[in-house]
Design brief:
- The chain has 381 residues and is of the alpha+beta class.
- The chain folds into 3 domains: 108 residues, Acyl-CoA dehydrogenase/oxidase, N-terminal domain (Butyryl-Coa Dehydrogenase, subunit A, domain 1, Orthogonal Bundle); 109 residues, Butyryl-CoA Dehydrogenase, subunit A, domain 2, CATH 2.40.110.10; 144 residues, Butyryl-CoA Dehydrogenase, subunit A, domain 3.
- 50% of the residues lie in helices and 15% in strands.
- The chain is built from 12 helices and 10 strands.
- The strands form 3 sheets. Strands 1-4-5-8 form a 4-stranded mixed β-sheet.
- β2 and β3 form a beta hairpin.
- α1 crosses α3.
- It is globular and about 80 Å long.
- The model has no long low-confidence stretch (mean pLDDT 96).
- The structure holds flavin-adenine dinucleotide (FAD).
- Flavin-adenine dinucleotide binds next to β1, β3 and α11.
Amino acid sequence: MNPTASDTHPIEKAADEFGRNVIEAHAEQWNSNGTVPREFFQQAAEHNLCRLLVPHELGGAGLDVGGFTRVLTILARHCLASTFALVVHNNLTAAIARSGIERHIDSYLQAMMKGEKIGAFLLTEPGAGSDAAAISTTARRQGDDWILNGSKAWISNAVHADVLSVYVQTNESSGARGIAGFLLDAEMAGVSRVPPYDLLGGHALGTGGFQFNDCLVANGALLAAPGEAFKAAMHGINLARCGVAAMCVGLMQRALSEAINYTGQRTAFGAQLGDFQGVQWILADCATDLEAAQALTAIATRLIDSGGDATLAAAHAKKFATRTAFKCVTDCMQVMGAAGLSRSYPLARHLEAAKMAQYLDGATEIQNVVIARQLKAVYAD
Ligand SMILES: Cc1cc2nc3c(=O)[nH]c(=O)nc-3n(C[C@H](O)[C@H](O)[C@H](O)COP(=O)(O)OP(=O)(O)OC[C@H]3O[C@@H](n4cnc5c(N)ncnc54)[C@H](O)[C@@H]3O)c2cc1C
């Protein structure tokens, strides 16, 4: 669990240091403040954590999905919400790099890799979540330009975002084929921020919304043309699901280690809590779930890295890891007694995050939709 082995990637070591020294020290304060501070991204960048998926040729760390998810597991041991803030930011840097569009690379990528500009991904709307193709924010042609109108909801990094990857409908009768993606400056005329939401927890992520009111956008701001954008958004979904699963593995690792440490030193009825078989079996079940979640995540990430179709594997990993993280964290809290509820330990924060993870990048039921679609092909005689 401790990335100190000599063959550990330098970025995993940097992530471990950043997690222990920066995230661990501030996670509760960020949750109370409603967001990470802007400097969080600059500090992360100093540890090379804002360039994880960008190829070496463009100045990035060039990690594959396996490397990326290992970093996420390490960071999420301390706080999933702030780790996810970095995931969203890194995913957008990767999308900009992949687009190969020089003006976007020049305008945004370098500043984002330094943590000076912060990215957000705007797909979900007040009226369209799981059914993302049903978005109703519109982009209408006006000469060479476009006019955007509509609302986006549940946007990670909404509090600080400077660079917005916005998905819009260009032709209401075309469904997913009419969806285009633009890359916009959050401060441009016609864009306004909705204040961050008051949630169960996970406030470090600064989740909120945006409104677009007659926002005039040049055609050059297109990141993905109609017909390409929805495919591009879905292109990254398996990676995103592996990322959520990997973060849940980090939550489980931390919960288990806190519970083992605590029950190893607290006594009741003249014995250590950890010596009671009832406690041991709860923790043994957590360990099995953790190993299984890690294995499913590794299967899915290896498939992506080898160019295979990871749709089914990523759905299994995301569903299993998010479900078991929620159970594992609550079970570890239980064996710690009342102390498990205390914010002096990270488990309360991790429980909130485990619930949140069940919605990120497709809710649990949507993973089941994906899995159910392939049941016959995989299991029928
Ligand atoms: C903290 C947080 C951060 C987020 N960050 C972002 C972000 O940065 N960018 C972004 O675009 N979005 C973001 N989201 C939105 C997220 O992707 C959506 O919440 C998710 O897709 C689910 O959509 P919904 O909440 O509208 O639920 P709905 O779509 O309204 O679904 C409600 C319930 O019905 C179930 N359901 C829906 N369809 C089916 C079906 N066919 N069969 C069975 N059950 C079904 C769902 O699983 C869910 O349980 C974020 C969400 C959260 C909570």
